[in-house]
Amino acid sequence: MTSTERLGWLQALRGIAAFCIVVNHAVINLADTAYYPLAHVLTTPLSAGVDLFFVISGFIMVHTTRQDAGGVASATAFFIKRIRRLWPINFVLSLVVGCFSFGWSLLANDDIRNQLLRSIFFIPADYAKIYGLQIIAQSWTLNFEIYFYAVFAISLLFARGRWIFLALWCGVMLLVVPLLYHTSLIDVHAAYENSRYPFDYMKVLTSPIIWEFAGGGVIALIYDSSLRIESATLCRSLVFGSVILAIWSAFHQFYSLSLYDGAAFALMVAAIAMASKTIEIAAPRVLRYLGDISYTLYLQHLFVIILLQQAYGSLGLQQELKTPANLPVTIGICILAAALRHGQGTFRFNAVGNINAAHERSPRCPATPPRTHSAHSPSAPPRG
C-alpha cells in the first residue's frame, strides 16, 4: 500500500472538517426565518471542525519532519514552506474581501487599514474576542496556525532536542504563565477574553487551544513509532468507539473551541492512525478530494456565501435563498468555487502531497457568523 493510500484517512478527515464548517456557516441564510432555531441547534456543533483541523495540523507537522535532522536550514525551509502555502491566498482574499466590504475606506481609514495589515500578517486585529476581527472572519484560526508553525520551526533549531524544547515551551506557556496570571488552563474563550497579560499577543501565545496542535504532534510520534495494535477486531472497535465519542462530544458539549472536543478528536485521530497500521481504513475519494481543497474551501466559503446573498438579492430571490432546500445549493457552490480555485493550481494545498514529499526527501471555525452581509465581521458568540 502506498503512502498516499495509507494516509488517505487523514485527508478525508480534513475534508470532513472543512465540510462541517461550510455547513455551519451556510445556515446564516436562514437567519430571521422559522427554520433558523432548529438549523442553528443542529449545525452549530459542526464548528468543532476547527478543533479537528488543529489536531490534524499538529500531526502533519511532526509526521512530515520525523526524519529531519534539524538545524537552521531545516527550520528556515519548514517555515518558508508553510508561509508560501498559507500567505498568498490569505493576502489576495483579504484584499478582495476588504475592497468588497469597505471600498476606498480600506486604505483611507486608519483603523480599517490597520485591520487589513494585521489580517494579512496573521496578527489579531482585535483582542477582545478570540475571533480577532480579521478581514476574512474565519481566518482568525490562521493566527494560531502561524504561531505554532513558528514555535515548531524554532524547535527544529535544537535538532534532536526539539521534543524537549517543545515540551518545555508548552509547559511554560500553557501551564506556568497562565497560572501566574490566574487564567483558565482549559476554557479557550475565558482564557482569551478574561486574561490580564502585560501585552495582548500573550493571549495567543498562552491559549489552551495550542494543546490541540501539541496533541496531534504526540499522536504522530506514536504513529511513527514501532507500536502497533495486532488485533484487527480491536482496531475496528477503537475506530468505531472513538468516532462515536467525537460526535457525542461535539454535540453534547455544544461549545465551540472546547478542549473537550479537542481531546475527543485527538483520541479519534490516534485510534484511526494506529488502526491504519493494521487494517485498511477506506477513505472515499470525494472526502479525500474535499481534503485536497480544504484550505481554499475553508478560507473563501464565507465570502462566496455573502456573494450569493448579494446575487439572490439583486434578482429578487431573497425568499428562495432563505429556505432549507437552498442549503445544498449554497454548499455546492462553495465547494465548486474552491474546486475551481484549486484546479488553477496557484494556491494548491495538499496535505497528503506534503506528506508524500517528506517520505521521498527525508486547517474551529467560529460559531455561526452574525446575521450580516459584511464579510469582515467576527463570528457570533460561542455555543452554550
In short, what is this structure?
With 384 residues, this protein is mostly helical. 66% of the residues lie in helices and 0% in strands.
Can you walk me through this structure?
It is a single chain. The protein has helices at 3-6, 8-26, 36-43, 49-64, 72-102, 105-108, 110-120, 140-156, 162-180, 188-193, 202-205, 210-223, 232-253, 259-275, 285-292, 294-314, 318-321, 327-343, 351-361. It has 384 residues and is an all-alpha fold. α4 packs across α14 (259-275). The termini are far apart. The model is unreliable at 346-384 (pLDDT under 50).
Strand content range: under 5%
User: What is the count of DSSP helices, taking H or I runs of 4+ residues?
Assistant: 19
Taking the sheet with the most strands, its summary is: none
Shape: globular
The strand count comes to 0
Provide the structure class: mainly alpha
Q: Any idea what the radius of gyration is?
A: 20 Å
Tell me the helix content. 55-70%
Mean pLDDT: 86
What's the helix-strand series? HHHHHHHHHHHHHHHHHHH
Spans of 5+ residues with little confidence (pLDDT < 50)?
346-384
| Head-to-tail CA distance between termini | 44 Å
